[in-house]
Amino acid sequence: MKFEVITLFPGFFTSALDQSILKKAQNKALIEIYIHDLRPFGLGPHKVCDDVPYGGGGGMLMCVEPLVKALESIPKVPQKRIILLTPQGEKLTQKKLKVLSEYDQLIIVCGRYHGVDERFKAYIDEEISIGDYVINGGETASLVLIEGVTRLIPGVLGHEGSLTQETFEHDLLGYPQYTRPPVFAGQKVPGILVSGDHKAISQWRKKKALHITRKKRPDLLDELDHEQD
Ligand SMILES: C[S@@+](CC[C@H](N)C(=O)[O-])C[C@H]1O[C@@H](n2cnc3c(N)ncnc32)[C@H](O)[C@@H]1O
């Protein structure tokens, strides 16, 4: 998988991409991440990338031309998806991450200021939001997307089986988990987990996952009911 990020703040990514899973996945050549600085595509001698919006209203907007030029500069592969990060986009979910992980190249455009000139939307495949809130720029959102997709790529985590038991798999939250010590400040690890009875453990986990989902996120069970109707 190739991730290509267009940003006005390339320095933002320096440390984040050089840590933990993302670093290992790059070292194993399972992913490639290219950060494209938008600034050189800016207009005029000052490489301007933003301007005031028509109609007023204050703030700045990212100009369409530098964005299009930056996009055009990226060599594309056939199985690609061009994504604009915006709070107005489709909300990112685990299901959506899986769909995105099937592509060979994700080109991710990070907005800043008041967002991008509407005409840029003619050049993208889709708009994605990381949630119903507004942050300052698409850079943080792009890291969420890149990390979420990367961990689904076979070979990245090294224990893919555990992915199928995670929160949001089968529209359920994950079951409670414990590690050593067996007792901490009077709180004991549930006896069943140290029983060695794998069938009983599996049943306990399913029950707990269902119980926790019903308590914390009943909306997920509603979705599940709709899917099965
Ligand atoms: C301050 S926001 C612009 C918000 C815009 N004025 C609006 O009302 O939709 C600047 C940039 O941050 C990014 N951004 C902010 N919130 C986001 C979210 N929830 N999901 C994805 N990107 C987001 C987008 O790239 C956006 O263009």
Q: What does this entry look like structurally?
A:
The chain has 229 residues and is α/β, with parallel strands linked by helices. The protein has two domains: 2-150, Alpha/beta knot; 167-228, tRNA(m1g37)methyltransferase, domain 2 (Trp Operon Repressor, Chain A). It is built from six helices and nine strands; from the N terminus they run E-H-E-E-E-H-E-H-E-E-H-E-E-H-H. The longest helix is centred in the C-terminal third of the chain and has 19 residues, at 198-216. Bound molecules: S-adenosylmethionine (SAM).
Structural class: alpha/beta
Main sheet overview: 5 strands, parallel
The number of domains is 2
Proportion of strand residues: 15-25%
Query: Tell me, what's the shape?
Result: elongated
Number of beta-strand segments: 9
- Can you list the ligands bound to this structure? S-adenosylmethionine
- What number is the mean pLDDT? 95
Q: Approximately how much helix is present in the residues?
A: 25-40%
Order of helices and strands: EHEEEHEHEEHEEHH
Look at the structure and name the CATH superfamily of the largest domain.
SPOUT methyltransferase, trefoil knot domain
Flag low-confidence runs: none
Secondary-structure map:
Elements: E1 2-7, H1 20-27, E2 32-37, E3 50-51, E4 61-62, H2 64-72, E5 80-91, H3 94-101, E6 105-109, E7 126-129, H4 138-150, E8 183-184, E9 187-188, H5 198-216, H6 218-228
Parallel strand pairs: 1-2, 1-6, 5-6, 5-7
Antiparallel strand pairs: 3-4, 8-9
Helix pairs in contact: 3-4, 5-6
Bound molecules: S-adenosylmethionine.
